[in-house]
Amino acid sequence: MADFSDFKATFFQECKELLENMEAGLMAMDGGEDVSSHIDAIFRAVHSVKGGAGAFGFNKLVEFAHVFETVLDQVRQGALDPGADVLQILLQAGDVLNDLVTMAESNAAVPDGYGQEVRAKLHELELRGQGGGDGDAPMEEFDDLDFMPVAATDLPDAGGEEPAPEAFDGIEFQPVPADATGLPSATGYRVSFAPRPELFRRSNEPLLLFRELRRLGTLTVACDVSALPDLNVLLADGAYLRWTLDLVSDCPIDQVREVFEFVEDDCDLKVEPLAADPGPMPAPPAPPVEARPIPATAPAPAARAVAAAAPVAEPVPAAAPSPAAESAKVPPKDSGEAQRKDEAAGGITIRVDLDRVDRVVDMVGELVIMQAMLRQAMGDLPRDGKYGALSRGLEQLFQISRELQESVMAIRAQPVRSVFQRMPRLVRELSNQTGKKARLVMQGEATEVDKTVTERLADPLTHMIRNALDHGIETPEERIAAGKPEEGVVHISAEHKGGRIIIQLTDDGRGINRERVRQKAIEKGLIAADAVLTDEETDALIFAPGFSTASTISNISGRGVGMDVVKRNVQDLGGRVTIRSTPGKGSTISLTLPLTLAVMDGMIVSSGAETFIVPISNIVECLRPKNGNVQQAGDGGDVLLLRGEVVPIQRLSQVFEIANARDTLADCVIVVVEVEGGSKLGIVVDELLGQQQVVVKSIEENYGTIPGIGAATIMGNGQVALILDVDAVGSAGRPANGRHIH
Amino acid sequence: MSKRILTVDDSKTIRDMLNFTLSGAGFSVAQAEDGVDGLRVLAATPDVEVIITDINMPNMDGFTFIEHVRKDPLHKSTPILVLTTESGADKKARARQSGATGWIVKPFDPNKLLDVIRKVLP
Q1: Do A335 and B108 touch (CB under 8 A)?
Q2: Residue A633 lies in domain
Q3: Residue B114: domain span
Q4: Other CB atoms within 10 A of residue A409 CB
Q5: A21: in domain
Q6: Of A203, A207, A337, which to mutate for an interface test with B (greatest number of B Cβ within 10 Å)?
Q7: DSSP A295
Q8: Does this complex have an ipTM over 0.90?
Q9: Does one domain contain both A184 and A240?
């Protein structure tokens, strides 16, 4: 039979969700939330990871998950009190489990001794839980090192019988002179079997047990019906029969016991080797696998007893007419009840391929464009009389397509939790590395934003947290000296505001040292030595490319990249970054991001007969050049003097070789945009036509790469308009080098 | 008519593996994600002949699920197998107490799984 490797992808996908649930639960407990409302889910998550991992033979993962789960179970049972120290260990265990899953997924070998330390701590907890437990629900004893996945049926009894030799169906067993039990196994066994009513209540069935036994050899069945009462006092679910079964087989005794594995506690069972003289039994032992019919030489009354007794012994529904009749009424009642519970449980979810959702997003984009076109066409027609109905219909269509667009975007939306969840671990690790104490407080994790945005948030957030821990939060000593609590707090929040999502990271550290930032900026040539900067401008310097205030580059945030990467990432997402800092009190970095990348706010501009869209997120300001504020620069290009700043300008008509664009600068409009690295660029266009939400269409997919163009959209009039990639426009001309001069 | 088996497990991996094994052996498989779902599916497909259920599940765990199933006259003698990652005595005791017929230890070997089903399937 095929193996299960096809299901690995599902498993790892599932693991991801399980681990997120686990982490969220642990964090909630760490944050002081009620243990009982989270521990079940945490336990289940770890348990499921273990269950799946076993199926694929990830033994190290299974071993670790098992130890972890054991401790979680103790917490669940109340045997172990989840104090702060316990939670710390559980959180660390969560990290190790996460790593082991990642290693399993990438087929990486687990380094020797990996997670050993955490495991030892878990073990201590386990012992503590056993010692201080209330004694109920004893844990199963496992030697952790030996814990291996065990397949379905070849388990020894839990009661502590001697381990069963490997038993395989379909393989001929060589008669062993003396097996582990020391008993001769060549002849067979006599099984005395007397079921109790419980056996039937659990739907076990003697007939099926005999059928299994018969697979092991030649079986002779004798039924004792002496306890069978008269019919009028016979209970349908009573147990009145006993059997004596003689099995001629050379299989090991454990294989016989195994047949009764499920019922051994619900019956009186005795299995003993057949006496040397098997009496009327057929002499030659049957092959163990091939089941033979019960020999004709079997005592006739016994055979009849089986045939007659079996139906009596079984609580067959058909034999009990009243329940059968009732059953017709039962399912509807049950389904109603189940449904109510379902609703209480919070609805049903389905998994859908992302491609399918994206196709719907595309179609809705088309619909929005089509609707805008219809609106435009309608614009010339009178709104009353014979066009009244059409006009009203269009208005409704507009409403519907808007709602449809929002609904579709909601499908792609994902809580930022998935990104936020990775941060607590980062804070823990960084605290360990730096010797600083910090706690992460998260807020608004349920805030939803487009999946693409969520995915691309991880990098900037990681970097911001590294930065906060490395540069913001002080060492415990410094904090105490400054009259602050020893433990620093990093606060991360997300919220919706005016169609955008705002993500804020606040630390209560030392704040930005503006003097040092300024020194550094001068050293790096980012500003002139005598530049006059406001506090905000100084703070913003930390986002300048290549800027790093740490005098020695640490291995935490100094990786040759600075906060400029954060800014870059966020701008790529059509967002903005701002920083607010109070010396001695801490800093707040705010990211403002669009909710989706499929729709964007754009400024519509014209140059000659062409229409372009400039992403609003890039635009700093728009202005009409006045006399004297545009000058010739040394290299022949024009520059704009903007409140003491020199901003290079670029004519759109030159970049794209557009004919009939306005020549005189005074007739034009300059759109000042912020480009890569925070420098500014003035883009000269003929006119601003308006501002509009546009549906972003990839041009690379449909046509090819055009330098200076990021994407395209379709306007209401059906015309394709190109969306500018302002960075590329900037670099199409001279290098952008806006600097302050004074 | 192929015999129908209901599998109840909150893990998609396990559900998929059970489905693969059981369908491959000619059974028709109904799936549910937890006890609540299991009762709903069972009500909708009463011709289930064997139930395989996990224990640790959200909303309604396996023990409670089995107790509910056993109260249904239609399924009071339907064999129920419990999926468990433990072979611990108390887990088995609880499974038995709630009315399970037998148990399957996860991870399961496909052939062994079918063996166990054969053991309880009339």
Answers
A1: no
A2: 599-732
A3: 4-120
A4: 18
A5: yes
A6: A203
A7: P
A8: no
A9: yes
